[in-house]
Amino acid sequence: MTALTREHQLLGTFVTLADCLVDDFDIVDVLQRLVDDCISLFDASAAGILLLSPSNRLEVIASTSERSELVELMQLRVGAGPCVEAATGGEVVSVDDIDQIAHRWPAFATDARASGFSSIHAIPLRLRDSTLGSLNLFRDEAGALNAADAAAAQALADIATISILQQRLVEESELAQAQLQRALDSRVVIEQAKGYLAQMRDIDMDEAFARIRSHARSTQTRIGVVARDVIDGRLSL
């Protein structure tokens, strides 16, 4: 990708995300678009977002792949790792080589290698003193994310944070909690729709999610609405 083309794509991502920040925006759609764009914008093979729920638990809210390996890495099956560290500590955790963290997070390092990942860049979703989760970039090759990409990824993480906590939600904590809970509830419906579609069509979960996401984008419908229609039998994919 040429620098000019990449710059235009990055600007387009910012514009698209900014356009999503309206009164009735859907957090899941915004964050899904963000992680999808991260793959083409940066040297990453997978991306995902962890979000802190109202009950103070970290949950996967968006990912570029529904492969169990990626979801489980972020979903804390091993209990710790760079994604968790960024989400709970509020600082960027950049791992140039997975081998470097084998002594600190051995289970995470083992699982990451088994999934084909060699490095990771985890960015907290932080506003002032509040950390809401983390944006996580998984890479097949070892090495640091270059400075320009790291700065751009941080800017996108900031946009994601703003999309979750707009000023009116910051000022009214009950509304903020309700917004976060709605996003998590939408994710539950999406998971149910994936399983239903995978069983009905005899396809894997990744393909099931790809169909749901593709239909949502082509019809400009929220992912959660498409998922609900699949479950209720109103939509056949």
Automatic annotation (TrEMBL):
Classification via InterPro entries: ANTAR (IPR005561), CheY-like_superfamily (IPR011006), GAF (IPR003018), GAF-like_dom_sf (IPR029016), GAF_ANTAR (IPR012074), WH-like_DNA-bd_sf (IPR036388)
Q: Which residues form a coiled coil?
A: none
Q: Which UniProt keywords apply?
A: Kinase, Transcription, Transcription regulation, Transferase
GO MF assignments? kinase activity; RNA binding
SMART domains, sorted: ANTAR (SM01012), GAF (SM00065)
Q: Which residues form the ANTAR domain?
A: 170-231
| Keyword Transferase part of the UniProt annotation | yes
One Pfam family for this entry, by name?
GAF_2
Would you tell me the protein name for this molecule?
Answer: GAF domain-containing protein
The species this protein belongs to is: Microbacterium kyungheense
